Amino acid sequence: LDRETGEFVRATDLGYQDLLDVDATTGAVAYREGVMPQIGVELEFCPSHSGFKSWRAMAYSPETEAFYIPLTLNCQRSIYIDVEQVEGGGN
User: Does the N-terminal or the C-terminal CB of the chain have fewer CB atoms within 10 Å?
Assistant: First the structure.
């Protein structure tokens, strides 16, 4: 996004994730086929629930005019289950 106007500039998929397709010119995202969880069906996806950006700090270099962002390249394999929602039973 443009820092002054907030308008979209461009999107870049680094190729480490397999959940979304990103339109580089509009920034629109769409889930890829087969990545929506289904009850009782194993699903493997990247990044994991923890995401790619972890606790390590990012940095900016005025010399290179670049941000340096440490990534954690984790994937995850999950099986989702049906959970009864009970008032006061959690989030």
Answer: C
| Ranges of the chain with pLDDT below 50 | none
Q: What is the dihedral of CA 31, 45, 26, 56, to 10 degrees?
A: 140
Distance, in Å, from the CA atom of 79 to the CA atom of 4, rounded to the nearest integer, reads 43
SS3 of 6-33: the string is CCCCCCCCCCCCCCEEECCCCCCEEECC
List the one residue out of 81, 55, 1, 66 whose CA is nearest residue 10. Answer: 1
Domain extents in the chain: 20-80
- Cα torsion through 54, 71, 23, 33, rounded to 10: -80
